[in-house]
Amino acid sequence: MLLVQRLKPLVLLLLLTSCGETPVGRQALCPLRQGAWWDYHCTDLPGTERRRVVSVAAVADLVVARLETEAEYAVGSYWVVDAPDGIRLLPARGRRPSLEALRNAPLWLPATVEPGQRWSYQGALPFAVGGDGLGPPPQVRAAFTVAAREVVAVGGRRYDAWRLEAETVHELVPPLRARERFWYAPGVGLVRHETRVEGRGTVTLELLAHGGGGR
Predict the structure, then answer these.
(1) What's the confidence (pLDDT) of residue 213?
(2) Alpha carbons 56 and 69: distance in angstroms, whole number
(3) Cα–Cα–Cα angle for 11, 14, 16, nearest 5°?
(4) CA angle, residues 11, 13, 193, in degrees to nearest 5
(5) Residue-wise pLDDT tens digits, 100-122
(6) How distant is the alpha carbon of residue 201 from its chain centre?
(7) Distance of alpha carbon 187 from alpha carbon 169, whole angstroms
(8) CB contact set of 64 (below 8 Å; sequence gap of 6+)
(9) Alpha-carbon gap, residue 165 to 206, rounded angstroms
(10) pLDDT for 135-158, tens place per residue?
(11) Can you give the residue range of the structural domain that contains 195?
(12) For 73, which DSSP code?
């Protein structure tokens, strides 16, 4: 159980709206709408994980959303910053950070994304593993690649989705190296996420339901 909790990865609920193999830019992302929610099931863990958008605000030239995660095995909250150069992330600790801190948050997704593109991320995981959110968030280093657009089956449904792949290092004790794959479906968001550690199996997160946040 503890190993599975430690393997739970950083997942941004970006809603891709592109079609075909054309570049996906920041302006092509569906906004995270206040009140939107997603329910997930993680293999080998009890119950359901809910992620929801609790607030959205304009801050200078940024759009800042706060997302919260609620589950039996993990709780947490983080800021998603829609900046001119892409999507940036910060763990949410109390009040909203300063404008400077939001601008300097680690870059999770560049402003323009297309098949074959690569980038890196280094920052805190946006949740506290297996706790009450009071401890220091673990760090992660990730090297991303936009792999392909393909059809993926999740919970008896088929989604036309973009697949992102990442080589990650979770800076725990001891450090965990993993290969991760993310599938994002247009207009839906994250539908499947796999985390594989050599010799330790694969943890899978799958979408059960989503809703709220009307346009």
Answers:
(1) 66
(2) 16
(3) 135
(4) 45
(5) 999 999 988 777 768 899 999 99
(6) 21
(7) 30
(8) 56, 57, 58, 79, 80, 81, 82, 96, 102
(9) 16
(10) 566 789 999 999 998 999 998 999
(11) 2-209
(12) S
> What distance in Å separates the CA atoms of residue 82 and residue 15, rounded to the nearest whole number?
13
Number of domains in the chain: 1
Residue 147 lies in a domain: yes
CATH assignment at residue 95: 2.40.360
- DSSP helix/strand/coil, 191: strand
Say what the pTM is. 0.79
Q: Which two tokens stand for residue 128?
A: 């506290």
168 within domain boundaries: yes
If residue 160 lies in a helix (H) or strand (E), which one and from where to where?
strand 157-170
Asked whether residue 93 is domain-assigned, the answer is yes
CB atoms within 10 A of CB 92: 22
> 10 Å Cβ neighbour count for 97?
19
Residue showing tokens 């290092």: 169
Distance between CA 195 and CA 166 in Å, rounded?
9
Q: Distance between CA 107 and CA 115 in Å, rounded?
A: 18
80 phi and psi angles, rounded to 5 deg: -110, 120
Can you tell me the distance from the alpha carbon of 191 to that of 74, in angstroms, rounded to the nearest whole number? 19
- The 3-state DSSP class for residue 27 equals helix
Q: What are phi and psi of 43, to 5 degrees?
A: -60, 140
Alpha-carbon torsion 18, 144, 178, 131, what sign?
negative
The answer to whether residue 214 is domain-embedded is: no
